UniProtKB/TrEMBL annotation:
Any one GO biological process: thiamine biosynthetic process
Pathway annotation from the record: Cofactor biosynthesis; thiamine diphosphate biosynthesis
Gene name of the encoded protein: thiE_2
Record protein name field: Thiamine-phosphate synthase
Keywords, sorted A to Z: Thiamine biosynthesis
InterPro entries: Aldolase_TIM, ThiamineP_synth_sf, ThiamineP_synth_TenI
Domain of life of the source: Bacteria
A matching Pfam family: TMP-TENI
Presence of the UniProt keyword Nucleotide-binding in the record: no
Cellular component GO terms held in the UniProt record: cytoplasm
Function of the molecule: Condenses 4-methyl-5-(beta-hydroxyethyl)thiazole monophosphate (THZ-P) and 2-methyl-4-amino-5-hydroxymethyl pyrimidine pyrophosphate (HMP-PP) to form thiamine monophosphate (TMP).
Domain Thiamine phosphate synthase/TenI stretches: 8-167
CDD domains: TMP_TenI (cd00564)
Any one GO molecular-function label of the UniProt entry: thiamine-phosphate diphosphorylase activity
Lineage: Bacteria, Bacillati, Actinomycetota, Actinomycetes, Micromonosporales
Length: 182
């Protein structure tokens, strides 16, 4: 099982510097490793078509947020979504209080205060997130907007960094994050 690592881009078409697929394509050109398709408010057909487009950009590296993999093999669940092992890869958003089952990885958040979700927290800090995750593979999420912050998380055992707003607004930032997050 390949666990997401490096720079994992979470989509948000409202924050994107341009059309979403083009913005994601730019993040991959700058070193992104994986993408998590959010866009949960889109109608099913549009969201499914978007997942297909992203799979052409990043074969085998597209994770769909929510329990429906939209024809793929990977999902990222919220704290309340039900685990379904009919897919190959399962991640979960985790804040330390939700019950975990046999997820392959978790995102731990927020690591730092974040512009995308002001007031969301309290921020755990990289050391707090590492302690919370323990031996479970984890991605640092929230406020990862510089190479220094990414490096801090990686030094404390993160498998990678999950980034939304910073790279949606500036896809070129992915390059400096990837330099330290792999």
């Amino acid at each position: 099982m390949v666990i997401p690592s490096g720079v994992v881009v979470l989509t948000d078409r409202r924050l994107a510097a341009g059309p979403l697929v083009e913005t994601v394509e730019q993040t991959f050109a700058h070193g992104a490793s994986w993408v998590i398709l959010r866009e949960k408010d889109l109608p099913y057909a549009q969201r499914s078509a978007l997942a297909s487009q992203l799979r052409t950009l990043a074969p085998g590296r597209v994770i769909v947020a929510g329990p429906d993999a939209l024809g793929g093999n990977a999902v990222h669940l919220s704290s309340t979504d039900v685990l379904d092992r009919r897919v190959e890869l399962v991640g979960r958003s985790w804040h330390g209080t939700e019950k975990l089952s046999d997820e392959d990885y978790v995102t731990v958040s927020p690591i730092f205060p974040t512009a995308s979700k002001p007031g969301y927290g309290p921020a755990l800090g990289a050391a707090g997130a590492a302690a919370l995750a323990g031996a479970r593979p984890w991605l640092a999420l929230g406020g990862i907007d510089s190479a220094a912050r990414a490096a801090e998380c990686m030094a404390l055992g993160a498998a990678g960094v999950a980034v939304m707003g910073a790279v949606m607004r500036d896809p070129a930032l992915t390059r400096s994050l990837a330099a330290v997050a792999g």
